[in-house]
User: Which sequence fits this backbone?
């Protein structure tokens, strides 16, 4: 039967309706395909900004702490060099020598040997005395002689008037850091070391890719650096130098770098810089991956972004946790550093566990300054590592163990005993085991380091509102009581006659003894 006009019209309408439906479906699909990625992109951008700020802020805190430690280490090294030069100045024979009056090869040989005997380090490029008539004693490098020629004394004198005691511009290329000191009106002591010495050992402690340390002078000219792409004597990169705070030494975060700076007494700066891209590399790559997946699978984008956000947050938290651990850790010993130790103790004492007692044990290494003086700072560092390993071995994982600085260490013990007598007994037993562990290590045939002992002071926490400062003060008082008793022992605050009325007297003695070492 032939198809009627009505049938044809119906079929045509159905075709139109289907076409319109398909068109609407397509519009909806295209709309969601556009809207969802846009929404996801906005969310990701906002998330990226917030996380970038958070990670930069966290990195800023960490490199500020690191930069302070680096500054202290370099300052200590410079003080050692300065003190070494002072040994020449203090020698009366060298001071009284007048090359215009004395003409004796024997005397010159004696003075040369005498001066060089004071050199603490083998890598000095210069270690001697320059006189106004051109005479030199000790070790004066060819580079310095060439820089001054027959007017070397005048060059050094002019440098001292311009730059002070420390200078880097005598030898071309800033390859030397030189300390100058007057013996008298016609003689200047000179001590020089390679510029690289200041930063050579720092590469192992830079815990983020792209992080570098720069030692710069007052004009921000690079003296020494871990950055192999920088030529000594060139100015610090503009993107870094504009973030160097020359007044308050605060950490600055810019678009390209996060920068921390510390100023030395002679006007130089130590600058630690981390490229922002290196801080955010893992975050950016993850976000790109999320955007690609969102475009390809638009209908699943919302569920997917929730899943990926969870993964990103976990990834970022893990990264931040790792960086936070580095920021809380003392770089040399692996124990908690001073600031983190104080924060943890304060938090613990502010929120104590019910039925739990606490005791703080403060300890240092007896006569540690002598170890450094006799054996050098490298051996001293090994002794500190060995000492911290003994702390880790004797004390439990649940105890809070920290290095407060130098040769001072502190442990917060958590104990379940409730009676004070049991707490004291527990503390005495742990202190005894620690002292014995040091003795065993000292008597071990495998021990190659200098034997050391420890003086210890312990204080029991009496409950809130007593906080870190009060507990630390008691432990410190007990420690110096141990030193008064002959060292290599421990004292518990409240025992052995150590009470509140003795705090002022012992604290006064501790202030005086800190000037001369342990």
Assistant:
């Amino acid at each position: 039967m032939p198809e009627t006009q009505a049938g044809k019209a119906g079929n045509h309408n159905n075709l139109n309706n289907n076409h319109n439906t398909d068109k609407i479906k397509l519009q909806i699909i295209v709309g969601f395909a556009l809207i969802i990625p846009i929404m996801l992109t906005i969310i990701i951008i906002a998330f990226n900004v917030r996380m970038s700020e958070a990670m930069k802020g966290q990195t800023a805190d960490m490199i500020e702490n690191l930069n302070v430690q680096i500054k202290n280490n370099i300052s200590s090294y410079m003080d050692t060099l300065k003190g070494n030069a002072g040994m020449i100045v203090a020698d009366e024979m060298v001071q009284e020598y007048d090359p215009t009056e004395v003409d004796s090869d024997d005397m010159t040989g004696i003075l040369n040997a005498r001066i060089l005997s004071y050199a603490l380090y083998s890598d000095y490029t210069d270690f001697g005395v320059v006189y106004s008539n051109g005479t030199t004693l000790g070790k004066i490098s060819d580079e310095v002689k060439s820089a001054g020629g027959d007017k070397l004394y005048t060059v050094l004198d002019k440098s001292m008037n311009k730059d002070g005691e420390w200078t880097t511009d005598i030898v071309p290329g800033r390859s030397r850091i030189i300390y100058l000191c007057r013996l008298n009106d016609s003689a200047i002591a000179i001590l020089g070391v390679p510029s690289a010495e200041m930063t050579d050992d720092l590469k192992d402690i830079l815990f983020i890719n792209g992080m570098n340390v720069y030692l710069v002078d007052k004009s921000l000219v690079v003296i020494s650096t871990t950055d192999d792409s920088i030529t000594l004597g060139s100015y610090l990169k503009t993107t870094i130098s504009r973030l160097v705070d020359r007044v308050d030494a605060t950490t600055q975060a810019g678009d390209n770098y996060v920068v921390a700076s510390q100023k030395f007494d002679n006007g130089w700066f130590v600058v630690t810089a981390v490229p922002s891209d290196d801080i955010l590399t893992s975050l950016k790559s993850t976000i790109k991956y999320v955007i690609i997946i969102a475009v390809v699978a638009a209908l699943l984008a919302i569920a997917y972004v929730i899943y990926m956000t969870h993964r990103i947050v976990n990834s970022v938290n893990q990264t931040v946790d790792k960086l936070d651990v580095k920021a809380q850790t003392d770089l040399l010993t692996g124990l908690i550093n001073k600031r983190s130790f104080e924060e943890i103790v304060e938090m613990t004492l502010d929120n104590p566990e019910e039925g739990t007692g606490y005791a703080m044990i403060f300890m240092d290494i007896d006569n540690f300054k002598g170890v450094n003086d006799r054996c050098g700072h490298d051996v001293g560092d090994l002794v500190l590592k060995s000492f911290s390993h003994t702390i880790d071995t004797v004390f439990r994982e649940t105890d809070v163990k920290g290095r407060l600085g130098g040769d001072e260490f502190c442990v917060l013990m958590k104990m379940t005993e409730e009676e004070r007598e049991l707490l004291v007994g527990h503390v005495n037993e742990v202190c005894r085991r620690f002292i014995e562990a040091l003795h065993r290590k000292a008597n071990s045939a495998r021990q190659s380091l200098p034997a050391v002992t420890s003086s210890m002071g312990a204080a029991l926490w009496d409950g809130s509102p007593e906080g870190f400062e009060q507990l630390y003060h008691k432990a410190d008082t007990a420690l110096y009581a141990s030193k008064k008793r002959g060292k290599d022992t421990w004292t518990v605050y409240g025992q052995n006659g150590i009470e509140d009325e003795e705090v002022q007297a012992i604290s006064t003695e501790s202030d005086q003894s800190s000037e001369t070492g342990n």
Q: What stands out?
A: Confidence is low (pLDDT under 50) at residues 1-15, 500-518. The chain has 15 helices and 15 strands. The radius of gyration is 33 Å.
